[in-house]
Amino acid sequence: MNAKPSPTAQASDRTRLSLDVPPGVLLLLDHCAEVTGQSRTQLVLAALVDQLPAAVERADALRKRVRELEQASQQGRPGGGKR
Fold first, then answer.
1. Domain ranges across the chain
2. What digits encode the pLDDT tens for the residues 25-61?
């Protein structure tokens, strides 16, 4: 089963993360928090949880491409032979 971690997990189940955001992002977060009644933390956590599968997929694809390039360079083919 592909259950997402709950964005509303207990605070004791979490690790604190410090995040610096540009003023425009903070302004938008404040607006969304006011409209939805959620805290900025809840909004950011929900967005991260929603986007994490795509980020993992990109990271896995990047790792695969790096391995391909490393193997190609060991075989003497510059650029991995792919474009």
1. 21-81
2. 999 999 999 999 999 999 999 999 999 999 999 999 9
